Amino acid sequence: MEGAALTRRGLLVGIGAAGGAGAMYAAMGALGLAPSEPSEQEKEFVPPRTGDFTLRGKGTAKVVILGAGVAGLTAAYELGKAGYDCTLLEARQKAGGRNLTLRGGDRLTELNGPAQDVRFGEGVYFNAGPGRIAPWMVTLDYCRELGVPIETFINTNAAAYVHVNDRTVRARTARADMYGYVAELLAKATNVGALDKTLTKDDRERLLEFLRRFGDLGPKHAYEGSDRRGFTKYPAIDIGTPLDAPASLHRVLAAGTGRAITNDFGYEQATPMFQPVGGMDVIVAKLTEAVGKERIRTGVKVTKITNLADGVEITWDGGALKADYCIAALPPHILAKIPHNLGAEVTAALTTPTPIAAGKIGLEYGRRWWELEDRIYGGVTETDLDITHIWYPSHGYHSERGLLVGYYATEGDAELYGALTPQDRRHRALTQGKKIHGEKYRQNLLSSASIAWERQEHIQGGWVRWPAFDSSFTFLQRPAGRVYFAGDWLTHLIAWQAGAMESARGVVTRLHQRVLQSP
Amino acid sequence: MEGAALTRRGLLVGIGAAGGAGAMYAAMGALGLAPSEPSEQEKEFVPPRTGDFTLRGKGTAKVVILGAGVAGLTAAYELGKAGYDCTLLEARQKAGGRNLTLRGGDRLTELNGPAQDVRFGEGVYFNAGPGRIAPWMVTLDYCRELGVPIETFINTNAAAYVHVNDRTVRARTARADMYGYVAELLAKATNVGALDKTLTKDDRERLLEFLRRFGDLGPKHAYEGSDRRGFTKYPAIDIGTPLDAPASLHRVLAAGTGRAITNDFGYEQATPMFQPVGGMDVIVAKLTEAVGKERIRTGVKVTKITNLADGVEITWDGGALKADYCIAALPPHILAKIPHNLGAEVTAALTTPTPIAAGKIGLEYGRRWWELEDRIYGGVTETDLDITHIWYPSHGYHSERGLLVGYYATEGDAELYGALTPQDRRHRALTQGKKIHGEKYRQNLLSSASIAWERQEHIQGGWVRWPAFDSSFTFLQRPAGRVYFAGDWLTHLIAWQAGAMESARGVVTRLHQRVLQSP
């Protein structure tokens, strides 16, 4: 009987691989394996809304998940839907990992630094970790499935500033000038015949037509400035007051605005982007609710991972737990430090990626001067200062208070800020932001909170970088005995929640196939 | 005593012009003109929130406003704040003019066409008139002042399509390819020395650095495609499946995507843009509430405007009204048809601008397939078809139903759709949209409603075009006797609500100055 079941299961996995989950499930029914009338206890978890990812076939194994960050929560959520009995062990005091939203009343501690009491007003929040979601990312599918309402995160704003080489200019102006001169130069080269070997006569005409449009060129293909640069006073009853004429080609090239104005060209940052209404951690709250709060044990610092022939044993200070399988969803550099019997190759692979420092500061103001005076509604000011960016809030428009992200720094800049006291971080961020926004940047400030992810206990980094996506990366995609690994760090979506979710989906799919195959 | 008051008033206007409204108001207090303890009735209207535009000094004149569109409502609102007694006469059955939002239960009639009963589901709306607001526009100030909540209108979406010359491609792909080849061509011209007379060595290096970034060029400054084009399968655990390689330079130029990918370059259309939460007519509702519903008389078709020595008389079928001043806030071609004694020059000026046809269709679907399958969350697909654009909704993400704007056509295309029955408009719009989205564009359709603005009674046009902003335009900025003119058509913001609001502000400022100066 056991042998027969094994064969059937093997067959099912084959059908699943070839025909997809639907085919596998249909075959299970035909083979009499699908429960026809499940008892109340056996009923599959029904997600809040239909998801497009579902494990088919019921799993009955017990799974312990290390880390209740987004990868761990997603794994528990998907396994729970398929009938698994999951327990999450989380070293920190709350679930979510880097998906952390700070609000008034929160207390933020860090390694080697003073604690911060967050004093933001009612309704004000600071997404200290991830803050935006691209529409192609699986994160949006989870928002849909879990009923997390979303709204636009404005990642590109023509009215935001570019601050490079000590000069501040609106993004629209920097872009109009670069595009204008690029168009003029290419039109000139085309017209003097420099590209005649490359371009047919038709090509040339089409190219010139595009360049006139692209650069808003004058009749002789010269860039003479353009409405697109913006106005001192925008058109109304009169035609408006344009800005001063653009600087020379030489000065525009020397201004160095190129990085800033191409920042949203990539597939990860292209407009539009999205955010959950009310804070990024609404995703954590909804995942937690769906998984079952009682399955998440916080404050549990694992001291040992033991792979056994018939299961896995997890030990911590004052307790231990045995399960059929383990999913280790911790940052690799944290996981590497936990004693285990998974072999030296696992440890070597886990220590291959390097943690990267990342930090942010939330600056809460009592007046949304960026909307009232600068007409900046959401978006990002790009700088070559150590603050790198200033993010303006994409929600709560026209309300009394608002929170800017005063720096979002990585690597060296993040370490610089991270090494300061919270007070000194704020002081430095304000000094830098003042270069762009003037004295008002220091006025009306109500409170602030800053995070240095490399100083967050049990996380110790914003994300990791692999020297190459080679053997170590591939090696950890496979389980070590009964221990699977999951996290954004095992994907090509590092530093995105979507990576954690994709990794979790991959792991639970493979774990589930194994369970279905097991005797 | 009257003479003394006149002198004081003249002085006040002088102070106001020189020192602003605050100085004028302070001077009024000093001169004993500002009421120290106004009676309940005399109290100035207090706007819901502080606005940045306020008439100072109390006006007591009676003003009749023709047309309760955005210009008329704004004029009444601002005059009401300053103490004027305003009456609005509106020929249509409701206020708002072109600011029209259609919802289930509405009935839309048009000239020479069948009525449409709007059957949209709960919460679904169609902004049949204006749909988006640029952040620099005064419309946002009124949203703030009136307490109209706003949200992002996504005007640029890398995931939306460009459909030109019978080919459909994602906007991100069209843009990456054009930018890539433009960068390659200019790099080539630069490297062969074609621009050596224009560029210094430093310029050349900076330009090449920018071009590598701008076009995502390969090491030899060649465009070889790029991640920015998008993926068949986006990166996850694996690196993703890129799209096929880009077409040749020749084919990319011939594709003709230039207009589509530069559509958001202007100051009016640049990202981000905004919309009121719940429909554009929330602005109308809040203005109506602030003005006082009882001041708006709908269904009143004015038959005569008579300028008198001491006032103005407005006549309609079955009634007449006398006031101190009139603000005619109707479309010029409608106003020109109403008999008046304002002189032939006024009629000539009013008939100078030409009304432009404009039309839209709202297509309500029972499934948001554009989000679920195309991963298009808001934004606009640009086409060279007669539908011109498809707008995807920038709200209600992930909900069950949703409404697309299936065409937003102007001039000839609008006339083409306008001449069809509502059923045929829908049929044509679906046939066109299917070229982009396939058969699903016709499936799941629940209902539709279409508008041809040139067929809307008492409006008869989407907006107007001036042959030139010359003497007629300037002439109508001034009153004809006691009759003032207001509307977007008297500004450089034609077809924008901001134009109507700016015009209204201008008119009430001049009218108020005159009242303060009058004996």
UniProtKB/TrEMBL annotation, chains A, B:
Residues 70-510 form the Amine oxidase domain. The keyword RNA-binding does not apply. The keyword Transmembrane helix applies. PROSITE patterns: TAT. The chain crosses the membrane at residues 12-34. Keywords: Membrane, Transmembrane, Transmembrane helix. It holds the Pfam family Amino_oxidase. This is Flavin monoamine oxidase family protein. The lineage of its organism: Bacteria, Bacillati, Actinomycetota, Actinomycetes, Streptosporangiales.
